[in-house]
Design goal:
The structure holds three protein chains of three kinds.
Chain A (H helix, E strand, L loop, with lengths): L4 H34 L6 E6 L2 H11 L13 E7 L2 H14 L1 E2 L1 H4 L16 E6 L8 H5 L2 E7 H12 L10 H40 L10 H8 L5 H10 L3 E3 L6 H7 L5 H23 L6 E3 L1 H14 L3 H12 L3 H17 L4
Parallel strand pairs in A: 2-5, 6-7
Antiparallel strand pairs in A: 1-2, 3-4, 4-5
Chain B lengths: L1 E7 L2 E10 L4 H8 L10 E11 L1 H16 L4 E4 L3 H9 L7 E2 L1
Parallel strand pairs in B: 2-3, 3-4, 4-5
Antiparallel strand pairs in B: 1-2
Chain C lengths: L1 E4 L6 H9 L8 H22 L7 E7 L5 E8 L16 H4 L6 H9 L2 E7 L2 E9 L1
Antiparallel strand pairs in C: 1-2, 2-3, 3-5, 4-5
Helix pairs in contact in C: 1-2, 2-4
């Protein structure tokens, strides 16, 4: 390493200040964690790093003359936040602006656009200072740091770009650079597609919720989102309470989502179909439970016993017989042999109460 | 009621024999207490020797399932006799606990 | 502002930089990125394919709308007539088949800009790309 005296001085200052930067990293990491939590932001990754001596030496060799002192180098400590969606970059940027002192003049310093890690198309960089309230020494306010915000896809792009090994984009063959730009364009398109998909899903859920709330069940197709909203109306509680009364049993509210697969297999298409299942088969389902449970001392039951019995009597009433029952149990899991015996047992019970 | 606990590899193997009912549910709870902790949460229970379980038994299986789940483990009951299986089936508990 | 480059062989970097350093360009980096990507694709296309052997001229210019809300980039050349917006060019020549801008390039331009128009006038290809600022 052949650094001139000027750069050696900067390097000395770095060695002296390194512990302060490490402390700054801890303070900023904790503060960022707090901010994200407080604002319910959920991101892919947050990480901080203090530049290594080796990396700084490299930077000084290339353009040490540009910096008068260490404090002119704003990325000795850098913090990075990687988000899922493009619009979250903006939200986080707003939070950073609110919680740190952003050095606007230097955040848009054109000179720095030539630096590789400033290659600004693909991420947002802020040069920041810690607000006084977070500083325990004047140095902590004096030295700036850099916050980089980008989406996961932008991060992939930037990481590969770095991996190509060029120190700045003027070194890169034009064709390669152009192709990297094209990929950046495609990443940007992909990012906006992801945002659009998320928006569509949010819209869909909102629409479904309002249809469900209005009781417009025939217009709500059965899927994971709609079934979940439907379950919030506790549609099986009436039957569950009735069954529980048999033995004064406690109802354990288990998750009914696994039944979605079975309902779809039974070709239920809308929430209206499930409403009809409840309406038309609750009596039989109750009779089945009565036959099974009365005379036992079982005083706990799972909420799912309602849906289980409804599906069983539905299959039997529609002439699908023992094989139909076996299909139900296999769709719910377990071993086929035990399921076969279970179907046989249930089929006999159903015969006794004239469901078949 | 007898509970035998063996650690094997990353799994805990448990052998259950006899009945779980009002008279011995408390004992059963004590017997399975070691399974409610530790960082070896994958449990496989051989139920081939088990003759009956009451509601108290079901509650304890549920408790164990929750404890195992919170430690990211798995509870599996195997080789259950038909009359025991029926108790799990008619209460809907076979929807909650994995029975192979 | 506009400027005529002649000859254009191996001059694409210079032409792109000329357009990108126009005072009409916005300062927003995300917008700049989209514009640069499109300018690169469009300029590169003319430089590579418009003239046999790359011998010819290209006039590049930028202009802001009166309200300052829209940036227009115009590229004019006197090479082989070619409309990049048409999937199948009736005058397809062997060279035009290689025209990258008919594929990924034009796709990206269309996505990145708000409007792209092509016309052939007085023996010149004129490509106009518009971006709302």
């Amino acid at each position: 390493m052949n650094l001139d005296l000027h750069c050696e001085m900067i390097l000395d200052e770095y060695r002296e200040m390194r512990p302060m930067f490490m402390h700054m990293k801890d303070v900023v990491s904790a503060e960022m964690g707090r901010i994200m939590k407080e604002n319910n932001m959920y991101v892919t990754a947050m990480e901080g790093r203090v530049k290594t001596e080796k990396s700084l030496t490299g930077k000084l060799e290339l353009k040490g003359h540009k910096y008068a002192t260490l404090s002119d180098i704003t990325d000795i400590f850098g913090y990075r936040i990687i988000t899922f969606y493009t619009d979250e970059v903006d939200k986080i940027a707003a939070l950073v602006e609110k919680n740190f002192d952003v050095d606007w003049e230097n955040s848009v310093d054109k000179r720095k656009l030539l630096d590789l890690d400033r290659f600004g198309y693909m991420s947002l960089h802020y040069i920041c200072r810690l607000p006084e309230r977070l500083c325990d020494s004047p140095e902590m306010h004096e030295y700036r740091f850099e916050v980089q915000m980008r989406t996961a896809l932008q991060h992939v792009w930037a990481t590969i770009y770095h991996d190509l090994g060029y120190k700045s984009d003027i070194e890169i063959p034009r064709e390669t650079l152009r192709n990297m730009h094209r990929i950046a364009g495609m990443m940007e398109l992909a990012d906006s597609m992801f945002s659009r998909i998320r928006m569509e899903i949010t819209d869909y859920r909102r629409r479904v919720q309002s249809l469900v709330a209005d009781g417009d069940f025939d217009h709500v197709p059965l899927d994971g989102d709609t079934f979940r909203s439907y379950l919030e109306l506790k549609p099986f509680d009436k039957l569950a309470t009735k069954i529980a009364t048999i033995n004064q049993a406690e109802i354990y509210r288990d998750n009914l989502m696994p039944y979605l697969k079975l309902l779809l297999k039974l070709e239920f298409k809308s929430l209206g179909d499930i409403e009809r299942l409840i309406h038309n088969y609750s009596t039989d389902a109750y009779q089945l439970a009565l036959h099974q449970i009365s005379g036992t001392d079982l005083d706990i039951m799972a909420l799912s016993v309602t849906l289980q019995n409804l599906c069983c009597v539905y299959v039997l009433r529609n002439g699908l017989g023992m094989t139909g029952l076996e299909h139900i149990f296999n769709a719910l899991g377990g071993n086929p042999q035990a399921n076969h015996m279970r179907a046989e047992r249930l089929f006999n019970q159903a015969q006794q109460i004239n469901i078949i | 009621m007898e509970v035998k606990i063996n650690a094997e590899g990353g799994k805990t193997l448990v052998e259950l024999t006899g009945r779980i009912d009002t008279t011995n549910a408390d004992q059963f709870q004590k017997d399975i207490a070691p399974l409610m902790q530790g960082d070896n949460p994958d449990i496989e229970m051989d139920c081939s020797g088990m003759d009956y379980t009451s509601s108290q038994g079901l509650r304890l299986f549920l408790m164990l399932q929750k404890s195992v789940g919170s430690r990211k483990g798995k509870l599996v009951l195997k080789n259950m006799k038909p009359q025991v299986r029926e108790v799990f089936d008619i209460t809907g508990f076979s929807n909650i606990i994995t029975i192979l | 502002m506009k400027k005529k480059f002649n000859p254009i062989k191996d001059k694409s970097a210079e032409i792109i930089e000329y357009v990108m350093s126009s005072p009409d360009m916005p300062s927003d980096e995300s917008l700049l990125f989209k514009i640069r990507l499109s300018v690169e694709e469009a300029v590169e296309n003319v430089v590579r394919y418009s003239y046999e052997g790359g011998i010819g001229w290209l006039e590049a210019g930028t202009q802001l709308s009166d309200d300052g809300l829209e940036l227009m980039i115009v590229l004019r050349d006197a090479g082989t007539p070619f409309n990049p917006l048409e999937r199948e060019d009736p005058d397809v020549t062997a060279a035009a088949e290689d025209r990258d801008i008919g594929g990924l390039g034009i796709f990206l331009c269309k996505q990145m800009m708000d409007n792209i128009a092509y016309r052939y006038e007085d023996g010149c290809n004129i490509l106009t790309m518009t971006k709302r600022l």
